Amino acid sequence: MATPQAIATDSSGQTLQQRILKTAAQLFATHGFHAVGMQALCDALQISRGAFYHHFRSKDDVLDDICTRYMTELVHKGLQTLRDESDPERCLQRLGQDLLEVIATNLPELTVCFREIQSLGIERRQKVIALHRKYESLWKETVERGAQTGVLLPYSRTRMKAVLGMYYYSYLWLNPARADELAGAIESFNDITLKGLRK
């Protein structure tokens, strides 16, 4: 007899909830959140609305989950990096590498995170914005640490927005299928970041 876990997953090992999130992210990234209706989403998944509603109450819940999930992952990775790396320059390099790798590995999801935040309701949007701020505060903390030790310039909000914008907007052109492109982006972006923030 099949176990509940076996029943709950498909041939790729994904649960239906994971398939819903993955498929929705691909559709939202390609067509835009508002252009994808519930029926189109269920048709793409080949499930009934009842099966969908067993996991999510609405399409808005799916968008909220996507945006929250990946920004939370970046915050957790960033906190771990700050704990692991005492050297500010190495910390910046690791933050940059992790950010680009998360974007490349989850490109549809991060495309949705960056592009569809305004489609969230006010409370949910504010929650995701708070996660963005928390994540950016980790970069700020790293720069301030480097400024205190004399290796980095004093923190500047303008410089930090420029640096993070460079990483964030890679979702527009980064091709996850090309490992050399990701490796090149990590090397180039980190080089630009350090040259721009070194004292």
UniProtKB/TrEMBL annotation:
Sequence ranges assigned to domain HTH tetR-type in this UniProt record: 14-74
Domain of life of the organism encoding this protein: Bacteria
Annotated InterPro entries: Homeodomain-like_sf (IPR009057), HTH-type_TetR-like_transc_reg (IPR050109), HTH_TetR (IPR001647), KstR2_TetR_C (IPR041490), Tet_transcr_reg_TetR-rel_C_sf (IPR036271)
DNA-binding region: 37-56
Keywords associated with the record: DNA-binding, Repressor, Transcription, Transcription regulation
Recorded GO MF terms: DNA-binding transcription factor activity; transcription cis-regulatory region binding
Pfam families assigned: TetR_C_24, TetR_N
Protein name: Transcriptional regulator, TetR family
Taxonomy of the source species: Bacteria, Pseudomonadati, Pseudomonadota, Betaproteobacteria, Burkholderiales
